[in-house]
Design a protein that fits this description.
With about 230 residues, the protein is mostly helical. The protein is built from nine helices and no strands. It is elongated and about 60 Å long. The chain starts with 10 loop residues before the first helix and ends with a helix.
Length: about 230
């Protein structure tokens, strides 16, 4: 307290671990841009020239290093969200500070599990439907769209730190990040539907795949962590 007023803790101190994830996200983006042109171009095309992705030449396919970098970006996005969510769950400063480190670690673990589950599910779906090419394109769309998600989250978090140098419970980036996440989810579903239609996959199989590996897990995640 100072003259009867609470002394605000700097936001960058409270969100220290999240700020570290922000830095890692920027570093991964720079690496993707400088070292992996093909993955970078495919990521950009997925947003506004999806037909260019589908019609790319063989030598325009992503390299292993670019794919791994994009997956890392997706996990960083999960980690960043986990840290912000953990901070938002506490209405007052507990002993030892905010559990942002725990939130970031849990988010990264959840992102890794989601990646493994989605990949395994895609291979099973490809085996059941005999539509391996369409399913693999769906995985590719998901990977590229996660890069865009991270860039949106980085922007939101940066603007929050600039506008709120002192941390207050009533002002949290979580709500804005959640809204951004929902916008991203809808856009990704539309891209997945485009992939289903373009590949002439049986509509029933396409809807079953999207409901099982897209819509279902999304609703579970929302109501489990954000709906309360």
């Amino acid at each position: 307290m100072f003259e009867g007023q609470s002394i605000l803790i700097p936001s960058h101190v409270v969100f220290g671990p999240v700020l570290l994830m922000w830095t890692l996200g920027m570093l991964a983006t720079i690496i993707l841009r400088i070292r992996f042109d093909r993955e970078w171009n495919l990521t950009l095309w997925t947003a506004y020239r999806i037909k260019r992705v589908w019609k790319r030449l063989a030598d325009e396919s992503a390299s292993t290093g670019g794919t791994i970098t994009s997956h890392s970006i997706g996990i960083i996005a999960w980690s960043l969200c986990g840290g912000v969510w953990a901070v938002a769950q506490h209405s007052e400063l507990p002993d030892g500070g905010f559990p942002a480190w725990t939130g970031c670690a849990a988010g990264a673990l959840l992102g890794l599990l989601a990646l493994i589950t989605r990949t395994a599910g895609a291979w099973i779906g490809a085996w059941v439907t005999l539509e391996k090419k369409a399913v693999m394109r769906g995985l590719e769309i998901d990977r590229h769209m996660r890069n865009w998600l991270l860039w949106g989250l980085l922007t939101v978090f940066f603007l929050y730190l600039v506008q709120n140098p002192g941390f207050t419970i009533d002002c949290s980036p979580l709500q804005t990040m959640t809204q951004l996440w929902w916008i991203w989810i809808v856009l990704k579903w539309l891209r997945q539907l485009q992939a289903v239609v373009r590949a002439s996959v049986h509509f029933g199989w396409g809807i079953a795949y999207i409901c099982t590996f897209e819509i279902g897990p999304t609703w579970i995640l929302y109501f489990e962590f954000l709906g309360s």
